[in-house]
Amino acid sequence: MLETKIRALRLERGMDQAELARLVGVRRETIGRLEKGQYNPSLKLAMDIAKVFGRTVEEVFAFREEE
To answer: How far apart are the C-alpha atoms of 19 and 7, rounded to whole Å?
Structure first.
């Protein structure tokens, strides 16, 4: 299962989903699904999102084994 800190990082910067989506070249719905753990990003998208926040991919995303 994918867990992300996207929402918290986005809100820290006063950024809405649409703005983040525009910065990384995806639809707003994709950001929403990422925040809810309903979508696993490509490595490129994960890296692009991390870069927007000045973080590493590991700081933004965490994968957990499902039980």
So the answer is: 12
Long-range contacts of the stretch 57-63 (C-beta < 8 A, 24+): 59/5, 60/4, 60/5, 60/6, 60/9, 61/2, 61/3, 61/4, 61/5, 62/2, 62/3, 62/4, 63/1, 63/2, 63/3
Distances (CA, A) of 45 to 20, 23, 62, 66, 67: 11, 11, 15, 23, 27
Q: Structural domains in the chain?
A: 2-63 (1.10.260.40)
Q: Record the pTM.
A: 0.90
| pLDDT averaged over 10-residue windows placed end to end, the chain, 67 residues | 91 97 98 93 96 96 78
Report which secondary-structure segment, H or E, holds 4. strand 2-4
